[in-house]
């Protein structure tokens, strides 16, 4: 998991001149040829990188990125004109896909691995939320849970 965080942080710190040169902040700027981003660093899930930049940063070819999208491995945002816009999160995912493909995993296997990793991350987030005490209990929820456990497991 730390790999993803390091990868995302690396792209957040990416040279602003490269980001400004290759990204488009909205359709008006695109039509005007203005390549400046809004002030500050884009959110990790904000699509700002075009396909050629994403391909270069991830180490995969543009055709590979299109194929990965077709297989549902990555879902980049789209501009109003339909252009793919990849976020830092997408780039981290593409890096993981590239690693798995290089290790000899086929795309169906990559999809399964990514699904399991996503499920695992969601479960870890749930565990952290529960441990922090932000459970959001409803009155009687413990009793209902206990009854469900007893119903599911007659020996309890």
From TrEMBL:
The keyword DNA-binding applies. The keyword Ubl conjugation does not apply. It comes from the Bacteria. GO terms for molecular function: DNA binding; DNA-binding transcription factor activity. Residues 132-156 are annotated as: Disordered. InterPro entries: DNA-bd_dom_put_sf (IPR009061), MerR-type_HTH_dom (IPR000551), MerR_fam (IPR047057). Pfam families: MerR_1. Residues 48-116 form the HTH merR-type domain. Keywords: DNA-binding. This is HTH merR-type domain-containing protein.
